[in-house]
């Protein structure tokens, strides 16, 4: 029993480290976006350059599904796939947008799972507030990680016929599960997740 327990603990630690590394890399991409946005509205040429830079980052980081910028009014500005205005994409209904608009500070926030507005895929979202030079709210930088990425990453892990791998958010929402079930639902967390 002790050997089996140690094996499960090692597997859990390994999966947690891999997930942490993925989130850290996505956070780096969001921080880099923050540094490339200035106080002024982006010209069409600047949006094209930013789109190309974002596309190169997404290509280099398989965990990333999308990078995008949202302005202070919740409007799409640019992503790794589009520099054209998208008036059909408004993000004011997203909890992360409302949070960053109401809270100063440049910390990264993890949200999800969410159904992507632009691709209709389930994603985990990392966001960071953008500020004007005077400190007022300028918008949000967003990095999406497709939940499929976790499925691909964990595909080689044999947990047995009745085993499962689950990734929970701090609020108890099920972010990822293999085999798939209950994604996006808030479930009661086991006592192991309680703060001491």
What do you see in this structure?
This protein has 196 residues and is an alpha+beta fold. It has helices spanning 2-36, 44-60, 95-102, 147-153, and strands at 64-71, 76-79, 108-115, 122-131, 137-146, 165-168, 174-178. The strands form two sheets. A five-stranded antiparallel sheet has the order 2-1-5-4-3. The longest helix is centred in the first third of the chain and has 35 residues, at 2-36.
Q: What order do the SSEs take from the amino end to the carboxyl end, as H and E?
A: HHEEHEEEHEE
Which strands sit side by side, in order, in the main sheet?
A: 2-1-5-4-3
Oligomer: single chain
Cα shape: elongated
Report the average pLDDT across residues.
77
Structural class: alpha+beta
Number of helices: 4
What's the number of extended β-strand segments? 7
Distance between the termini: 25 Å
**Could you name the ranges where pLDDT drops below 50 across 5 or more consecutive residues?**
none
Q: Tell me the helix content.
A: 25-40%
Largest sheet: 5 strands, antiparallel
The proportion of strand residues reads 25-35%
Radius of gyration: 18 Å
């Amino acid at each position: 029993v002790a050997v089996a327990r140690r094996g499960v603990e090692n597997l859990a630690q390994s999966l947690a480290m891999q997930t942490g590394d993925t989130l850290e890399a996505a956070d780096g991409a969001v921080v880099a976006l923050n540094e490339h946005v200035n106080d002024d509205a982006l010209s069409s040429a600047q949006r094209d350059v930013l789109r190309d830079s974002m596309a190169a980052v997404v290509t280099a980081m398989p965990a990333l599904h999308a990078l995008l910028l949202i302005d202070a009014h919740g409007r799409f500005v640019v992503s790794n796939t589009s520099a054209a205005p998208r008036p059909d994409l408004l993000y004011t209904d997203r909890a992360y947008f409302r949070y960053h608009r109401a809270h100063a500070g440049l910390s990264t926030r993890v949200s999800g799972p969410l159904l992507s507005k632009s691709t209709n895929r389930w994603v985990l979202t990392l966001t960071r507030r953008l500020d004007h030079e005077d400190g007022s709210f300028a918008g949000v930088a967003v990095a999406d990680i497709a939940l499929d990425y976790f499925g691909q990453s964990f595909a080689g892990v044999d947990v047995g016929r009745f085993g499962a791998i689950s990734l929970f958010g701090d609020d108890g929402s099920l972010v990822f599960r293999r085999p798939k079930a209950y994604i996006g639902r808030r479930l009661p967390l086991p006592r192991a997740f309680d703060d001491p």
